Amino acid sequence: MKFPPVFAIAEKPSQATSYASALNAKLYDFYYLVSPCKLFPNGLVIFSAVGHLLELKEPHTYEGFEHLKDWSPDNIPFKIPKPYKYEPIKKTEKTLLQIKDAIREIISQHGAKNVTAISSCDVDVEGSAIFHNALKFCVSEEEYSQLTIKRLWAKSYENKEVFKAFHNLTDSIKDQNMYTQGITRGAADWLVGLSTTRILTIYVTSILEVLLNKRRTENGGTAITVKDILGGTSIRSGRIILPVLHLIYNRHNEINNFIEEKFYEIHANFGVAEGTYKGKLEGFKTFNQRDVSDVLRRHQISANSQINGQVTSLNKEIKHSSSPRLHSILTLQAYANKKWKLTAKNTLKTVQSLYENHKLLTYPRSDCHFIGNSEFEYLLENLDAYKAAANFQFENANCEPRKRYVDPSRVEEHFAIIPTRRVPTNEQLQKLSQNEYRIYMEVMRTTLAMFAPDYAYEQTTVITNINGLDFKTTGKIEKNIGFKILWEDDSNSENNDEEGGTKLPNIFEGEVANAKIEIKTGITKPPEYYTEASLLSAMKTAGQYVDDQDDAAILKEIEGIGTGATRDGAIESLKEANYIMIVKNKIHPTAKAFIACKATEGTLLSSPTMTAKWEKYLKQIGEGTKNAENFLTSVDKFIEQFLKTIPDIISRSETINFFNQLIDRVEENNKSLTCPKCKQGFIKEVNSPKGKFYGCSNFRNSDIQCKFNLPEDYRNRKLSLANIKALLEKGKTPVLKFKNNEDKEYTGRIILDSNTFKLSLEFDNKNKNKK
User: What are the tens digits of pLDDT across the range 5-17?
Assistant: First the structure.
């Protein structure tokens, strides 16, 4: 096969397909071929990766370092030689080798000096790392230095935008720096994750074994094991996952340690000629009921008595509020979690599909809320077409760019998530999945809202004086619903929240108001458990949890822990590590989370501080002003210090007492999960080669060998620990939702037979004929 001397590597097949469509390329086996044309006189070949094709080699696979396979403190830090080596990921190795063979053929035919390689993966640090890692695997160092490397900056997969991006290829200087930043971050996180996971696992499991053995000796035994406590044997650690876990852990402790307090406020119900209204004593809130009596006595007012007041101030002001800022992936994930209970991962997956497969939204992994002038112009051109497609009607009132939305100086690699130039037909909208439709329409609403009129209302502030005490009342009259018309069918939307207070009767300054004083009591409330939405926001604003002002400033500058592309991954990692459980959309830490947090309390991994310093340095590497080697050396020093610190933390009496209390709690919880068959063991989650299930702890007991078990999935419905508990205690679950093979929903209860210990389904009366 005669290949052209120009090739591009896309990050994933859908991306390669979009490039091929824009350039009229033909598919040949595993690549696309663009015939010679004005843009590429010698043609172009397009290859596709499938995300990362290479991964860092395990430390023990380095020659002379085979001993590192053993988890021992003596083997940490690893001391493997730099630069760290990569190897193909097994499941995608075939793709990588196909690309390598083709690139070898291109270089053989044309010579490296005459070949151009186009970095065509996602326009971010990860995309640059994927391209250059794959390319360096395929060519020698000498050939790599001889190649002409260009960068494709495509922010939309529409044909017109892709063609324009290929026409405006840039040099690779910025791309090379982003690549260095990416592999440096990847190597550091890999090194810290591996090392600290081993350190924590070694010392934590060791101390837990000591405590459990002591109980077995002194108290006649305990049925639980280290694995029962940890839900697996390793304590997963890392620069991102642990600071986020500590946010959850600290919030849980705040809630548990919160002490409710009763507080008192003074309100008044007023009557005037044309109606009634309510007021509140301005600036007064007390936790001492005696303060209320003192204030009223000094002003000769009796509680619950009738008294006259006078309207001393009446201020009316027309106020305007602009539509919300354009969506970043964070705000979209937060909105979708709050409104539809979508996880951050599912939201990102949905936006990615709308970007890649449907080409209806722009680049999804964006942290930006702004667009440039060119994006504003095409949105304005398509405005009426968008409105017709989405069936929105409003006045086109703001057709000039406003800095709240359009600010090229705030746009770096990516702009906000907005609709592409492609205006969907009704047929195309109907083909979207429910989540795709919901997300697309939310982005469409938020984007079009910047062209709609502002929301306008008349705010009235009334001060009513009673014997020298000023009671404040705020009310409003809606003047123009403005952009809120786009959300008028969405009662849960934040854009429909009341602004400016309640509606008021006609009130006149100087008017006498008949008043009745009312003492209102309230109870202070603890903070709420995080949801995925609020945790994403907390990760972005992590600087507020840091005492050091410089570190807080850095975290504000880099927008907290992680990025729009990685925050959802951090939450998924917490789930996979058995650190959190989601109950009614609220995030709760597990027993394993308490252990990991207690064992790392006070270390750099317990706070976003390290992330602040690291991300600032990594960003400077990406800008070409800092050295990657120096950074990795500092990482080695951090690991050495962590290794010295952990034994002292874990051996503290405070930590030992905490672990013992946690063991007590796990044992107590297990009593409610007594095995219904042998009546001696307890039910626990078991990982097997065939998957997870719930089984008896006496399964491996040579005397009993109880084989009772329950599946983790029943009729494609995942059973939670709460479901299992209900089966064991009551013999049935509450009414649950299921889906049949046609994806239609039905409801029913799962029943556990007390004799055969088999499961069956009792259909709900509403749909008992469904299967």
Answer: 999 999 999 899 9
d(CA 546, CA 240): 15
DSSP designation for 651: H
pLDDT of residue 490: 66
* Count of C-beta atoms within a 10 Å radius of residue 322: 17
> Within the chain, which residues score under 50 in pLDDT?
497-499, 768-771
**Tokens representing 1?**
């096969």
3-state secondary structure of 497: coil
Distance of CA 418 to the CA centre of its chain: 20
CA–CA distance, 65 with 85 (Å, rounded to integer): 13
Q: Which long-range contacts (CB under 8 A, 24 or more apart) does 669-676 make?
A: 670/223, 670/224, 670/228, 670/697, 672/725, 672/728, 672/729, 673/724, 673/725, 673/728, 674/728, 675/706, 675/708, 676/708, 676/728, 676/752, 676/754, 676/757
Report which of 543, 447, 460, 465 is spatially closest to residue 502, judged by C-alpha positions: 460
Q: Which residues of 610-624 are buried (b: 16+ CB within 10 A; e: fewer)?
A: bbbbbbbbbbebbee
Contact assessment for residue 420 and residue 354, using Cβ atoms and an 8 Å cutoff: no
The whole-angstrom separation of Cα 547 and Cα 602 is 13
Burial 545-569 (b: 16+ CB within 10 A, else e): bbeeeebbebbbebbbbbbbbbbbb
- Looking at residue 364, its amino acid is P
Cα dihedral 101/107/110/112 (nearest 10): 160
CB proximity list for 752: less than 8 A, separation 6 or greater: 676, 710, 727, 728, 731, 732, 758, 759
Contact 412, 366 (CB under 8 A): no
List, in sequence order, every residue forming a beta bridge with 120; answer none if it has no partner: 10
Structure tokens at 325: 């800022």
Residue 608 · residue 542 · CB < 8 Å: yes
Of the candidates 31, 130, 375, 365, the one whose C-alpha atom is nearest the C-alpha of residue 23 is 31
Count of beta carbons in the 10 Å neighbourhood of residue 110: 16
CA distance 200 to 207: 11
The reported pTM is 0.81
User: What residues contact 17, with CB distance under 8 A and at least 6 apart?
Assistant: 32
Round to whole Å and give the CA distance between 193 and 190. Answer: 5
Question: CA nearest 138: which of 91, 105, 113?
Answer: 105
